[in-house]
Amino acid sequence: MNHKAKALGLGSCPCCQKINKMTAKRQRCIRCHQVFSQRKEFSVQYTLAWTLAAIVMFIPANVYPMMVFYTLGKPEQSTIIEGIASFIQQGLYPIAFIIFLASFIIPLGKIIGLLILLYNTKNYSKISKRKQTQMYHLIASLGPWSMLDVFVVVVMAAVVNFGFFTSIEAGVGITYFTLMVIFTIFAAESFDPRLLWDIERRKNHDR
């Protein structure tokens, strides 16, 4: 019979990976003395809270300007989409694609992916648990890459600065964008992918 570690009362220490016999909800590892539990406590609640916070930040991040161009002292604001459109008009298609991917598709995909994973911790899904776990690891690994747009703005602001003639400043949208990325990283870190496998065990148990 294929027994799950949780059903056998076993837990893996997140610090040293030592398998412990769980005698309490929170237990001290017999090897490194790290206090841990079988699953991340309040994982779903924390992940949902951080994901909702990221959704709230996603709206102003795309509405408010990310950059402010100054040409002869005249300001010209640019949102993420406007910046992408500007690169396309200049024929800089690779840069436009990278910015669109890193600044819009990846953050939105991470948010949608996290919501799907949260839903699947409570509801059975036809998507295999292995694929869902791979989805989670992909979301977690993409976290730092979502900051690419912020790095581009910072570098451009530092390089393209000729005083009164031409200069670039970060817009208010960059603050919301940064918060959105940070919140999605926190959401991914809060999520426990083992919860996806627990629902399979509960489903089989109910039969």
TrEMBL record:
- Cellular compartment(s): Cell inner membrane
User: Which keywords describe this protein according to UniProt?
Assistant: Cell inner membrane, Cell membrane, Membrane, Transmembrane, Transmembrane helix
Q: Which residues cross the membrane?
A: 48-72, 92-118, 138-164, 170-188
**InterPro entries, sorted:** PqiA-like, PqiA-PqiB_transport
Keyword ATP-binding annotated: no
Checking Pfam families in the record gives: PqiA (PF04403)
Instruction: Output the superkingdom of the source species.
Output: Bacteria
Protein name, per record: Paraquat-inducible protein A
> What is the originating organism of this protein?
Thalassotalea castellviae
Q: What are the top taxonomic ranks of the organism?
A: Bacteria, Pseudomonadati, Pseudomonadota, Gammaproteobacteria, Alteromonadales
